[in-house]
Structures are given as structure tokens and as C-alpha cells.
Amino acid sequence: EAQVTQNPRYLITVTGKKLTVTCSQNMNHEYMSWYRQDPGLGLRQIYYSMNVEVTDKGDVPEGYKVSRKEKRNFPLILESPSPNQTSLYFCASSLRGEDTQYFGPGTRLTVL
Amino acid sequence: AQKVTQAQTEISVVEKEDVTLDCVYETRDTTYYLFWYKQPPSGELVFLIRRNSFDEQNEISGRYSWNFQKSTSSFNFTITASQVVDSAVYFCALSAGGTSYGKLTFGQGTILTVHP
Q1: Contact status of B90 with chain A (Cβ, < 8 Å)
Q2: pLDDT at A97 exceeding the cut of 90
Q3: Which residues have a Cβ under 8 Å from the Cβ of B73 and sit 6 or more positions away?
């Protein structure tokens, strides 16, 4: 089944404790992206990757890191999480940037 | 800069009513793509439709229809004979070229509640 997977689905952590949210797709897509969803703000792009080893900032990259060492994986790293990073995070992928993006199930992160 | 506005924060209807969700967009690019996504209470984002800027034909898919008008920069979504299962948050999104390649700019979303 073609899909985008994210892990974990739910995470509660404390300020400053490094964490990684994994994202994997099995559709051989070139383009991958991370978004965060906050009430009243819709979804905003954090980082995106056009292909392996090619990443760039989206609208709200502060406090996040990404890497794209393999085509199928695009992990999101929070080196020192803060409470304002409490949010619902979505990973998405598409064949190319202009194509339809398909989203993972979401990761609900709470930073205390 | 790209912008998507969904002016209706919440809509409440009774089952079998028709409902239209409004979406207005802004972009300077001549090539762009418009999308609608549905987010049911379970939280996932479900793709509904993609339309490119050169195709202004309206589209109908079952009870869903979309009205794309470049002259008013709008891409409205109508659900005919709404059902309780249509209750969800609906997002309109825009993707343009240039330096914004691939980035989806989302509207704030419209919460649709369909009452039995």
C-alpha cells in the first residue's frame, strides 16, 4: 500500500530533550516536506526537500533540523524543544514539487 | 507572496442541505495549483482535488463540485446534499512556482458540522 508513515504518533516530552520524528514514504517520491498545524493558523511549512541531500527552509524553520540521506526518509529533528513547538506535525511527499502532496497520519507533540 | 483566505471559520448545516466553502487566493505566478484537503475528526489529511491555473473547467465528483474562477481568484467547493460524514475541517491550499516550488500555502480551514 502506498503510504507516508510517521513515528511516533504521539509524544510528550520536556523542554530541552532532543527528539526525532521519523517520516518514510514508499512511493519513490522526490519531494518531501514537513508542516505544523496550529489552531487558527492552518498548516505551515517547516522544511522541504526536493531530493536526496537537497533541503531548504520553509516558513517556520526556527528550532528544527532535517536531513535527507535516503530518498524514502525525511526525519524532523528538534535539538532543544520548547513549549511553543507543541503542535500537530505532518510529513508529506509528492512525486515532484508541483504534484499532489500526500500526508502522513500526523504526530501530536507536547513539550512541557 | 502567496496567500489563501478561507473567510468562513465555521459552518453548521442540517443533513441534506447544500453547502459552499469559499476560498480566495493570491499569487503573482501565472502557473500555480490549487488543492482542497479534508481533515476528518480522526485527524488525517485527505486529498480531494488538484486544479492547475490553466484549467478553469468546473469539476464534479459525486456530491462534490468545485468552481474555479481566475477572474475573482476563487476556488470554491460545494457539497450537495450534505451528510453527517462530511463533518470535517476543509483546507484550501495553493502551490506556485519559482522560489515557492512545492510549498503548499494553506488557508486557515473551515470547520463544517453537519447535523442529522
Answers
A1: no
A2: no
A3: B24, B25, B26
